[in-house]
Amino acid sequence: MLRAVDTTVRTDVGRQRRGNEDSSYASAPVFVVADGMGGAQAGEVASQMVVQAFSEGLPSDGTPEERLSIVVQRANRDIHARSHTDAASAGMGTTVTAAYLDEDAVVLAHVGDSRGYLLRDGELTRLTEDHSLVEELVRGGKLTEEEALDHPQRSVITRALGIEPIVEIDTWTYPLRPGDVVLLCSDGLTSMLSEPQVQQILVESASLGEAGDRLIAEANDAGGRDNITVVLFRVEVAGEAAEALDQPTIIAPAGAPPVVRGAPAPGGRPTVRRARVQGYRPHMPPGFVQPAPRERHFGLLGKTVAALTALFVVLALVGAGGYLASRQLYFLGTDHQGTVVVYRGFPYVLPFGIPLYETFYVSGVPAATIPVDRRATWLNHAMRDQGNAISMINALELGQISR
Fold first, then answer.
1. pTM for the whole structure
2. Mean pLDDT for all residues in the chain
3. How many helices, marked H, and strands, marked E, lie in the chain?
4. Which of 124, 196, 328, 364 could cross-link to 274 by cystine, CB 3.0-4.6 Å?
């Protein structure tokens, strides 16, 4: 069994910000970094609300991934509710990257563009995927990693806590070895320093405390455009390690009120659980428009006709206000793993595989658990409003479907 030792937490306002909207929490076995946004003091309020949620502890039931997800969803609901009832907090949100040390593995729950890393044998591996516009462009081959570092829209994130009443959460579990170091950080670090630079600092530093200081200092030397927060901990075998932290370490912005109390091995790409997965499509009933199965063999004329057809449909939808309508419409379906999913938009796929929907929430509930005589009603892709879709998912997750 592994335990966390040499825990270090560092935060700094940076060179170009007036206040610090980052917050962090370190109380083994839970470690958290949250990067707030929203202007004025709203960002720091949102990030502190995440810390507050974790300081109250994890639920006792469920897998570690499920327990982390429950806390993140609870924080998301609280932030979303406050942003809609408190004018000073309107529009606030936050990222979160949370780690839980579970015997011989680290479990992560992640939303936004803060990051988690693993240093093993001198090699640094990123454990999370950014929910940002630039990262999506990199994954799609539109930008290189080098181009992404200086892209003018590098700070635009595509997912955050507080924006919607339910948030998609990525969770992973990675096996650990004695001597591994885990780093959680806000993007104020990774937007200033490249991953090879971060790796070099961690390898060269005599202690995690020294590493934390150097990471902050060099990020500031590189420009310090944003708040910078790092949480570091090393794992060792229980009984052979130094004493872990006895009290939680909570780092909030300066001047802020006190807060009251099966993945692949590192080096491979993580498997996303209960979150949007690129390439997933809901199973469509007969009659829905599907990408042509022999699309790659289309001739030039066929491609042109298909493209014009898609363009005509999209323009028709936009002209009729369909795009705005699609943001208010939801339907239940399943992904390719047979998991019940809430999709936002219209349940159609245009030629060339252009979907008119996006994943809103992946429940983690297998469709097979729905009674056979109820599946047609639940998974018929009927259009619903957000409240109705969320109520149905809540009933599924709580096992409240009558048989």
1. 0.64
2. 77
3. 11, 15
4. 364
